Amino acid sequence: MYGARHKSWVGALALFVTLGLTSSASAAAQPPGAAPLRDGLAPAHWAHPQQRAPVWQEPSQTSRQVARIHYLTEDGFPEVYPVLRRFSDSAGGVWLRIRIPMRPNGRTGWVRESALGPLYRVRTRLVVDRRTLRATLLRSGRRIWRSPIGVGKAGTPTPAGQFWIREKFKVAKPGGIYGPRAFGTGAYSRLSDWPGGGVIGIHGTNQPWLIPGRPSHGCIRVPNAAIRRLYRLMPVGTPMEVR
Q: For the whole model, what pTM was predicted?
């Protein structure tokens, strides 16, 4: 799905040095009768955008607009919107509550169903534990992958919260500082050289002796053998919990 964009990503990869952000959330209203599609557990649902539509604080066009749907990630991959709930209003219109890739972390809002394409479902879930310095991938609640990791330093922490996998790609120079594979997530850091706003990545490393540890500016480092296996197992749209 993303193979055609792998080579075009090489230039942006040099900007993968990110700094951490303390997470914050702005919860959208929950109207009575809103049906949950996901509450941080698998199976999870997501969709690519279909329109550059407004995102509303509540499922009503009279509520405050909080963002606007965009087609691509900062690096030119098709954007991924996790879908949390579905709501039908009194006029028969269908609304979807989504997670929004933006600062501050944790933002959600409502869009018309027509703003998004078909819903896809994933049964995987990634759990990142900053205390134990371990990451675990679950499929239908069962562990299928686990690895020691490196996370952000005390001054540039990896943000905690509920996030998701927005993109995945092969690295053109697998012996470099980002290793052979990388993922872009829905988490944002405090500061970064990455154009558009400091996305937290999950990637390999050429300094495996620093794992497990806290060596990064916010990104999650994984040993190269483990990141190759994770690349095979974890699809785009996978929810990610950082504890």
A: 0.83
Q: For 168-200, what is each residue's pLDDT tens digit? A: 999 988 999 899 999 999 999 875 434 455 899
Alpha carbon separation from 192 to 49, 113, 151, 164 (Å, rounded)? 26, 33, 16, 19
Percent of the chain with pLDDT over 90: 69
Rounded to whole angstroms, the Cα distance separating 229 from 67 reads: 35
Q: Are 233 and 124 in contact (CB under 8 A)?
A: yes
Asked if residue 78 has a cis previous peptide bond (ω within 30° of 0), the answer is: no
CA distance 82 to 238: 9
Instruction: Determine the 3-state secondary structure of 84 from DSSP.
Output: strand
Q: Which two tokens stand for residue 239?
A: 């929810």
What domains appear along the chain, each with residue ranges and CATH number? 3-21+122-242 (2.40.440.10), 35-121 (2.30.30)
Distance between CA 2 and CA 92 in Å, rounded?
36
What gap in Å lies between CA 1 and CA 4, rounded to an integer? 8
Of how many residues is the chain composed? 243
Calpha distance 107→59 (Å, rounded): 15
